[in-house]
Amino acid sequence: MSSLLIGGIGVAALFGGILLGINVMVVLGLVGAFGLASLVGFKAATAILGTVFFDTTHSFHFSVIPLFLLMGFFAMRAGLGEDLFEATTKWLGNLRGGLAISTTLGAAAFGAASGSSVGTATVFTKLALPQMLDRGYDKSLASASIAIAGTLAVMIPPSALVVVYGILTDSSIGALLIAGFIPGIVFAIVLCLAIWLTVLRNPSLAPQESYSFTLREKFASLKLAGPLVLIILLIVVGLYVGIFTPTEAGGIGAFATFLLAIIRHRGLGGVELRKTLLETIQTSAMIFGILICALVFSKFLALSGVANAVGGYLTGLDVNRWVIVLLVSLIYLALGMMMDAPALLAITLPITHPVMMNLGFDPIWFGIFVVLLVEIGAVTPPVGINCFVVQSASNGRVSLEQVFKGLLPFVLAGFAMLVLLCLIPQIALFLPETML
């Protein structure tokens, strides 16, 4: 049996296992391990597996992930999502559609601290959805705006998903984190414009608020929200000018949000330190497991020749390179409906990354582009994990169909952002290219 045929069987087994509902990490690891044994023999495969496990787990880059996750869990314990929503509401809530716009901007700031799309969607569903519905907002607009706002968490640094991309592609993690800052801000503005245009077209979706706040009340709302924004800016500036490494940035961010949590709860009692550390360990272990098994699978793909064959076929097509980008985008959008982001990147990057590099695309630009693609997939039916999270956290106030119904303008906004990245790649590349 040829190596290429074995590789093809392995890929089919992988997607077959996923469709059967088997854990992605388990399928990746088993298919990769048995595939390597079929290609090079059991003894050689064991040696390769040992090398992959050691090289991965002792890598300094991996320390970034638990620190960023810890920062996110401390931010949740500190109730910073509530502070951010209160602050943005006082500044923008009296606009038509202002609560939805406030939710988007609050989620952008909170997501930057948490780095979790699902976590951000959960927090703001509990905070913002009841207020929007009680004030007469359309259920579809309110719930869909929260689902898409959660995706900003993986764009604005610090982002664990961007770190995953950097590890899988051996790209500069510091440059990738910095690269997501401007696109994340621009995407937040694009989503706010989508809300404003939707409400402008159909004013019945969101009532005009009559309340207003004094300037003193507005500035008072920044008491704890302001320090969080300053922490995020400190991390971005520190990485940009080279004051500290991504790992050090994660440590500083985690310590700073820990202090904010202590201030908020007036002590350690409400921080739930043991639970926070345990959640960080569990989430880190899940991501590490996916990455290790993905690297095993990528070794199998490389040795079987599947990665080179698919990559050679795509780069050999007599078409404009943007046609290949469109094909790759459709693949990510389709697969993004069925699996979570780290697993999707782990499965696809061994093939798509070399193709994009052969076509002359910048690895940093492609990292931001593909992370945005994956997150758009996270809200796209029929699966759309963020939509399920919003519906579940709403305590029955909205149905899944209502969440999906309101997504169209926001998915179109996501596509507009992808087009912007293609037309103006400097949106993602300007800061990395000028880093000190």
Give a description of the structure.
α5 (80-92) packs across α13. This protein is 78% helix and 0% strand. The chain has 23 helices and no strands. The termini are far apart. The longest helix has 32 residues, at 273-304. The model has no long low-confidence stretch (mean pLDDT 84). The chain is globular, with a radius of gyration of 22 Å. It has helices spanning 3-19, 24-40, 42-57, 64-77, 80-92, 98-114, 117-134, 139-149, 160-169, 173-179, 181-201, 215-220, 222-241, 246-265, 273-304, 306-316, 321-336, 341-358, 363-377, 385-393, 400-405, 408-423, 426-433. It is mainly α and 436 residues long.
Shape from CA axes?
A: globular
* Rounded Rg: 22 Å
Fraction of residues in H or I helices? over 70%
Question: SSE order in H/E notation?
Answer: HHHHHHHHHHHHHHHHHHHHHHH
The major β-sheet equals:
none
Ends apart, CA distance between termini: 52 Å
What's the helix count? 23
Q: In percent, how much strand structure appears in the residues?
A: under 5%
E-strand count: 0
- Low-confidence segments, given as residue ranges, are none
Q: State the secondary-structure class.
A: mainly alpha
Mean pLDDT: 84
